[in-house]
Amino acid sequence: MDKLRKQQVSLRGASAKEITRDALLEKVAQEREFRNYMRRATAASLFVQRVWRRYVLMKRTALHLQQEWQEMVNCHPVPMSRVWISNNLLRPFLFFVTTLATRGRRFEDRDVDCMRICFKILLESINSSDPQRNFCTLATSSIEERSMWIYQAKKLISLCVVILSECDYSDQEGNQYVALTSMAMRFVVSLTDLKSWKGRNDITLQDADIAVRDLVCYMCSEKIKLYISIRKYLGGLDVPFSSQTRKSGHTDDRFLITASAITLALRPFNNDNVNSQFAAEQYCVLLLTIPWFTQRLPAVLLSAIKHKSILSPCFREILISKERVLKEISKLNYLEQNSSPKTLPPVGWALANTICLAIGADNNSKDSGRFTEGLDFSSFIRVVIILAENLLTYFEEVEWTQINSESLVELAQRQANMSYTDLLKPVCEQWHLMKLLTLVKDPSTQKADEKCELTDVAYYYSCMLRIFTILNPVAGSMHILNMLSFTPGFLLNLWGPLEKAFFPELNSASETTFSNNNHHTIEDLRDVISNKKKKWVNLLNKITGKSQGDYEQIESISNISTKFGNEPSDIWDIESLRKGPEGLTADDSHLIHLFCATYSHLLLVIDDIEFYEKQVPFTLEQQRRIASMLNTLVYNALSYNVSRQNRPLMDAAVRCLHLLYERDCRHQFCPPDLWLSPAKRNRPPIAVAARTHEVMSANIRSDDSLAISSMHSVITTTPHVFPFEERVQMFRELISMDKVSRRMAGEIVGPGPQAVEVVIRRSHIIEDGFQQLNSLGSRLKSSIHVSFVSECGLPEAGLDYGGLSKEFLTDIAKAAFSPNYGLFTQTSTSDRLLIPNSAARLLDNSIQMIEFLGRVVGKALYEGILLDYSFSHVFVHKLLGRYSFIDELSALDPELYKNLMYVKHYDGDVKDLSLDFTVTEELPGKRHVVELKAGGKDVSVTNDNKLQYIYAMADYKLNRQVLPLSNAFCRGLTDLISPSWLRLFNAGEFNQLLSGGNHDIDVDDLRNNTRYTGGYTEGSRAVKLFWEAIREFEPKERCLLMKFVTSCSRAPLLGFKHLQPSFTIHKVACDLPLWASFGGQDVDRLPSASTCYNTLKLPTYKRSSTLRTKLLYAINSNAGFELS
C-alpha cells in the first residue's frame, strides 16, 4: 500500500494546483504572440482603410475633375494654345483617365468620349503650323515646359498602348472604341516622327530630335509593353487568305490602326540611337510568333516588314542570343497553350513566319518564286535551323507522332482551307533549292562572313523534311521529297562530300577494281597482295639469310593474322562507320539523312532501265559504294543501339538500304561479300542469335517494350549480314525452340499414338486434306498420322512414322498448286512461278482453301519438307509483309511492263494513245473494268499524269489485285510460321527455303553422307553398281529416286548432311538356285523403301543393267511398302 501523499499548501493562499515553470513560459509566449498579432491586424486594417479612403477620394475627385474638364472643353473657344493644352487640358485629363480607366484596364463610355475629345484636340494641335498652337513645339521651349511635355507625352504614349491592346473588332457595339484607337494610333505615330512636326524650325531641330529619340526609347522599353499590346491586337484580327481580300477587306480605321501598329513596331529599327537589340528581341519573341502573322496584315505592309533593315537585326539577335530568345518564346508556350499540348507552339509559328518573310513577293501571288531583296541567306538558313531544331525538340517532348488528324484542325483557321504546312510550301519549291545551291557553287556573290555551305543547306532541308513528316506522317513529306529527288544534280551534290569522306582512297585504279566480274577482281587483288608480300619476304631473306621454308612459315602465320584484315570483303566494311551514327560528325549526319531520304524516294520511281543501263543518277560502281556505306552504318548503329536523336537518320538509312538490297536481290549489282562484310568480325553464334531473336520478339509482342536488344535489331532489320546458310540454321533453331516449348506445354510433337489421325483417298487428296485438317489451325504443328486409300478404294500398306505424312504434304501441294486446279496460275515468264489466280475468288470456298494451302506450306516449312513449286516474288513479298514496286512487274507480266515503260519514255503526246485510268480484268465469262482511282474512266492519261497512271497500274497488278488471296494465304501460313521468322529471307531465299532451289541431286554429296546397313559397305558390288547407275540417270529420274526413298523429290537445303535420318542403303539378301547362277540369271526382286527412315532396301544385284531396270521401275511405280 502506497504511503499517503503529503498535502501541498500554497503560500499565496490559493487553493488551485500549481503550474510548472515550462508551462508558464509557454503561456507567456503565446500571450505575447497574440498581442503582436493583434497589433499587426490593427495596423493592417488601418492601412486598408487608408487605401480605401484614398481610392474613394481619388475616384470622387477624378469624377469631379472629369465633369469640370468636360464643361471646360465644351465652353473653351477654338483655337487652343499649346500652353493651355498642356496645363488645362492634359493635366486633369491624365489624372482622371489614369485613375478611372487605365488602372482597372476597363474603359467605360464616358471615358471613351473624353479620350476621343482629347485626342481630337491633340491631333488638330499637332497638325497646326502655328508654333504657339502646336503641342509638339513645347519640346523645344523652356526647361520647365520641356520637362512637362516629356512627362505628358510619355503618359499619352502609355495610354495609347493600352487603348491598342483593348481594341476588339468582334464587339459589334465597339465602333466608337475603334475610332478612338484610330485617333490614338495617329497621334502616337505623329508624335514619334519628327518629320510630321509642322511647327518646328531649323534652330530647334536638334532639341526636337533628342526629344523624339527619348520618346521612341521609352515606347520600346519593357515597362510600356508595346510589343505585347501589338501582339494582342494582331492576334485578334481575322485571317483573310486571298490577296484580293487582304487588299480590300479592311475598313479605313482597321487598316489605319494595323498600319500604325506595324509602324510603331518597326520604328526602333530606323532610329540609330535607340537600343534596337531589345526591340529586335521583342519583335522576334512577340510578333514573329503570332499565328498567321503575315496573313493578318494588308499586302501593302508586307514590303516593310520584309525589308532587310528589319530582317537582318532580327536574324542577328536570334543568332547571338539564341538561348535567351528561345527561352522567352518557350515562356509564351506555357502562358498561352495550357489548354492543349497538341497546339502548335509559338516557335513553330516563328519558323513559318520567318520563311514567309524571306519570300520576296506575296506568298499567295503567282510571282512568289524569289527571295526578299538583300536577304542574308547564311543568317536566314541558320535561323531556320535554330527554330526548326527547337520545334523538333518540342515534338519529341509531347510525343507529337501520336497525334491524330483531328488535332491538326487547330493548325488551320476554320474559315479557310489553308493549313500550317501551306506556309512552309516555299521550301518545297525547286527555285528555293536552286537559289541556295547557286550560292553554294558561286560564293563570290556573297560576303566573306555570309557564305552559304552545302552542309548548311543539307541541315536546313533535313530539319524541314522531319517537320513535314511529323505533321503529316502519311503524305506530308511527299512534296519536298518530289522536289529534292527530281532536282537535277542535287543527289550528286550530296553524294560528293560523302564519297570523299568515306572513300578517301579512291583513284582511277579503284574505279575498275570491283566491276561486275567480282570473282576475277577479287582473285586479282589477292594475287597483287601476295606478290607484294613475296617481294618483301625475299628482301628479308637476303638480309637475314633465312630459307624458303622460313618464308613458308612466315606466310602461314601471315595468312592467319590477316584472315580478317586483308580479305577483299573488308573493302566494303568502312572503318569510319564502325561506331555507327555516334562516330559521325554533325555535318555528315545531316548529309546522310537528307541523301537517304531523297534517294530512297527516287528509288521508288526509277526503273531498271535507268538504274542498270542508263545508270542515272549514279553509276553502278557508285551504287555499290552507297550500298556499302549504308550497310556498314546501319549494322553498326543497330549493334550499339540507336539513340532517340539518331532515329530519323536511321529510319531513312534503313529504308534506303532495304530498297537497294531488294533491287540487288532482283538483279544483282553488288558482290555478295558487300552485304556480309559488316558482321564478319563480330557475328554472334547462330543458337545465341536465334534465342535472342525469339525472346525479344516475345517481349515486344507482350508489352511493346522499346528496349530492344542490339542483336535482335540486327536480325530483324539487316538479316542479310548473315550468310544464307546461317539464316537457314537460325530458322531451324527457332523451329526447334518452338517444338521444345510446345513439348513442355504438353502438346504432341513427334509421331505417336496421340497424333492426329487422317485418312486420305489418293483420288480426293485435296478435299480430304481440307476437310480433316483445315479446322486444326495452329494445332497443325502437331504430328499427323496419315493412312492412304488407293484409287481402288483399298487401304494401302505401311505405317506412318513420318514418311507418309511427308508424302501427303508433297502430293497435296502438287495437286493444289497445279494451275489446272484453278487456285493458282503461273507467271508468263520462263520461270513459270506460281501466283494466286485472281479469278479464284469467284470459286466456292476459294478464300478458305487458299488459307488452308497456306497452312500446308507452313507445315512443310515447319517440318523441313521441300515442295516442288516456287512462288512469284510478287506473291512472296506479300507473305513477307513487303510492298512491291513497278520493276517487279517484269517478273509477273513482262508484256505489261514493256508497255508501261513505253508510255513512261514516250516522247510525243501521251494523250494520243487514248488511255484512261482504268484496267480491264478478264474473268470467266465476262470482263470487269476497274478504276485505278475515283472517276478514273473519265480521266485521260496525259504527259502531266502519265507517271501517276503507270504507278497506279503497277500498284493494281502487283498489290491490289491479289491482296485478298495473299492475305488469306498469309493467315494460314502464319498460323504455323511466325512472320518474324520469314523476314529472315528475301523472296528468292524464301523459294529456296521452300523448294530447295536446284532441281537436281548432287550425287557426290549424297554418296559422302550415306549410311550402309544389313551387311553393305561402300565397297560392296551392288553399292558400286547403284552409284554408277544414278550418275547415268537424268535429273528428273534422280529426283524421283529421292521421292521414292524420302517422300521428297528435292535434296535437303543445306546438303545431305542435314538429312534426318541420314540416307541409308540397306542390304536385302536374295539367294539364287545354283542352276540360276550358272545360267547368268540375276535377282528378280524389286528395290523397296522405308520413307520414315529414308532407307533404300536394295537387293544384291549382280549386273548393272538389272539394277538400273529394277530401280527405274520401282521409282516410277509410285509405291514403296508394296514392293517389300
UniProtKB/TrEMBL annotation:
<dbReference type="InterPro" id="IPR000569">
    <property type="entry name" value="HECT_dom"/>
</dbReference>
<comment type="function">
    <text>Probable E3 ubiquitin-protein ligase which mediates ubiquitination and subsequent proteasomal degradation of target proteins.</text>
</comment>
<feature type="domain" description="HECT">
    <location>
        <begin position="780"/>
        <end position="1124"/>
    </location>
</feature>
<keyword id="KW-0808">Transferase</keyword>
<protein>
    <recommendedName>
        <fullName>HECT-type E3 ubiquitin transferase</fullName>
        <ecNumber>2.3.2.26</ecNumber>
    </recommendedName>
</protein>
<dbReference type="InterPro" id="IPR035983">
    <property type="entry name" value="Hect_E3_ubiquitin_ligase"/>
</dbReference>
<feature type="active site" description="Glycyl thioester intermediate">
    <location>
        <position position="1092"/>
    </location>
</feature>
<dbReference type="GO" id="GO:0000209">
    <property type="term" value="P:protein polyubiquitination"/>
</dbReference>
<comment type="similarity">
    <text>Belongs to the UPL family.</text>
</comment>
<dbReference type="Pfam" id="PF00632">
    <property type="entry name" value="HECT"/>
</dbReference>
<keyword id="KW-0833">Ubl conjugation pathway</keyword>
<comment type="pathway">
    <text>Protein modification; protein ubiquitination.</text>
</comment>
<dbReference type="InterPro" id="IPR044611">
    <property type="entry name" value="E3A/B/C-like"/>
</dbReference>
<dbReference type="GO" id="GO:0006511">
    <property type="term" value="P:ubiquitin-dependent protein catabolic process"/>
</dbReference>
<dbReference type="GO" id="GO:0061630">
    <property type="term" value="F:ubiquitin protein ligase activity"/>
</dbReference>
